[in-house]
Amino acid sequence: MHAEDTLIALPLLTRRATIRLAHRLAPCLEASDLVVLSGPLGSGKTFLARALCRALGLPESVRVTSPTFTLIHEYDTRPPMAHADLYRLSEPKDVEQLGLRWMRDDGWLVVVEWGAPYVQILGGDAVIVDLDLEPRRATMRASGPRGQCVLEEFLAAGLG
Question: Per the domain annotation, does 65 fall within a domain?
Fold first, then answer.
């Protein structure tokens, strides 16, 4: 089965399941990748971003909070991660001015909450993780060849 042929749907019945998802996804990600987190308020977007930071080596002593009001938080992970929240933005030019696309060009892993409408402005070729509340689950899909490679690697690691 190939990532471009399917959506990867995983139940996230507990916080621990979300942490496991992050720990399985993190080794598949590289510098300049884009991960877009979508879902309603309270679906776990920031929690998943925090779990990704931890899986990428960020110490527990460093707080990882929602960047809703600051728009971007930068973390010293491997690769370095920019965590953005575009909830309050409505104009493509505002998203462009944040410089997330250039951060990708400079080797940052960019994780964006509420970024689905702006995937192309952010440079395209993303892993998109849709988080649902009922039932609690994550559905992952790719929007380009690099995203497909990430999902292929994720699938190869096994779903257990």
Answer: yes
